[in-house]
Amino acid sequence: MIKKDLVIIGGGSAGLASAVSAFDNGIRDLIILERNPELGGILNQCIHPGFGLHHFHEELTGPEYADRYINEVKKRNIPYLLNSQVLNITKGKIVTFINENGVQKFEAKAIIFAAGCNERTRGQILTPGYRPKGVYTAGLAQKYLNIYGRLVGKNVYILGSGDIGLIMARRMTLEGAKVLGVSEIMPYSNGLKRNIAQCLEDFNIPLRLSNTVTNIFGRDRLEAIEISDVDEKLQPIKGTEKIIKCDTLLLSVGLYPFNSMLKNAGCVVNKESKGSLVDQNLETSIEGIFSTGNVLHVHDLVDFVSEESERAGTNAAKYILNKLSEVKNIVNVSHSKNVSYLIPSIIKVREENENIIFSFRVRKNIKKATIILKNPAKVHYSVKKINLLPAEMIKINVKNLNLLDCNELSLEVIEDE
Amino acid sequence: MSKKITCIVCPNGCEIEIEGDKISGYTCKRGLEYAKEEMIAPKRTITSTVKIKNSNEVCPIKTSKPIPKEKIFDVLTEINKVEIVKPIKMHELVIENVLNLGVNIIATKEFL
Predict the structure, then answer these.
(1) DSSP string computed for B82-106
(2) Rounded to a whole number, what is the distance in Å from the CA of A239 to chain B's nearest CA?
(3) Measured between CB atoms, which of A67, A175, A198 is closest to B110?
(4) Which pLDDT tens digit goes with each residue over A148-203?
């Protein structure tokens, strides 16, 4: 079997950034496995601007952002295989994949799993009605339009106000389709505020909050949908039904980490983020398997995917080169109820003072909050933040945490008046 | 008369309030510039795609600078007339000075 120091699964934003940083930290025997015919992942179909403001301090489109990292990978001659689908990963870090040369295996010292996320589908949100042509996930419609130049419909309705749905509302409008409206089951949008402004308000596309699709009509092609308002328990309210004639329904109803392969390998799952459970180095419960990017938790900004993945690459390199010192203490990390997930779940304390990045989301809008890190005896860190939204991941970078005598650490978001 | 706008300069999406010549709510210089321009002559950067000869894929493009909002659909009509040929370099010129707006249409992806 061919041996590799590092196998990186996924050649999108996470895989590319982790490959570059692993290389820069001394790893030479590495390879990227990408299932698509090109590197860059989902960035290739995100042709709109808005990427890179944090990382490159300028506004780039998705393909431009990908190009920067692809160039870095090529400059270093980091090898990659395209059209190569990983089939299986084992606890012993054997990666089985298939491409035009057949089924092959690599035995890796370390793996960085950077496989991205999937879109939730109609089946997952259980929309009743017929199953005609014309119902697409927003990202699939985006791929057809932005990669292949094919517009999937002319009269479009969008369910879900996540960013992909909003971006597609504008994109299809620009290509000549009539976007009739966007329904959001929650009382607030999960998309960025600027996307509501520049994708919907610019084109007078109505956004209906606390509203959802309750029926789908059409035996062959989609002919109409029924929308209804929902109550606080998200149940449709009788008497509020409205029929909208359309030929296309786009679903932008959330993303979830494409983590099944790591789960099958035996990595413990973080039930809240739906990715793997990781420590502060982004190492999963299996030593030497790291997870990063949208397969770990769904990010709103690619800039943060790149940052996280650079950390994964650096840490994987340290692991391979035996540069990680001995674990002196293990701390379990929990969070308050108004936090929907938190990364990391555990901290392996190796140094007296650890620098740790915590990423999390809140469950509801909070105007003013104090975020604290504490164990029962001591508050280790405290910071004030304003305008916390479920749609925006919060990242705090905590320096010099001394956790040698601590078993439990809790992150709490306290709402301020 | 006051008007509220959402800043589109970065993902923060600040709510900016404009009351006469008083502008508040922005948190950076670019936000202030955006708010001023939005009141006088709103502009947007436009991205779309152009056909590539003998390919089943299309090439993503963008306007080199923001264009006046009311010209968006006219510019798109021009973009849809174009067919380009491989190889395509990153930021290759696709349309020069589109509709005399002083803005170029450029490719945002490389095709070998």
Answers:
(1) -EE-SSB-TT-EEESSGGGSS--EE
(2) 34
(3) A67
(4) 999 999 999 999 998 899 999 999 999 999 999 999 999 988 888 889 999 999 99
Q: What is the dihedral of CA A244, A248, A252, A255, to 10 degrees?
A: 140
How many helices (H) and strands (E) would you count in chain B?
2, 10
**d(Cα A129, Cα A133) in Å, to the nearest integer?**
12
Chain A residue closest to B71 (CA)?
Answer: A174
In A, which residues are within 8 Å of B11 by CB distance? Answer: 50, 53, 192, 194, 300-301, 392
Rounded to two decimals, what is the model's pTM? 0.94
A→B interface, C-beta within 8 Å: 44, 47-50, 53, 59, 61-64, 67, 145-149, 174-175, 192-194, 196-198, 201-202, 300-301, 392
Non-local CB neighbours of A41 within 8 Å, separated by 6+ positions: A10, A11, A12, A13, A14, A15, A34, A66, A116
Identify the H or E element spanning A6. Answer: strand A2-9
Q: Where are the domains of chain B?
A: 2-40, 47-107
The closest alpha carbon to A396, from A407, A387, A384, belongs to A384
CATH entry, B47-107, from 3.60.21.70, 3.90.226.10, 3.40.640.10, 3.10.530.10: 3.10.530.10
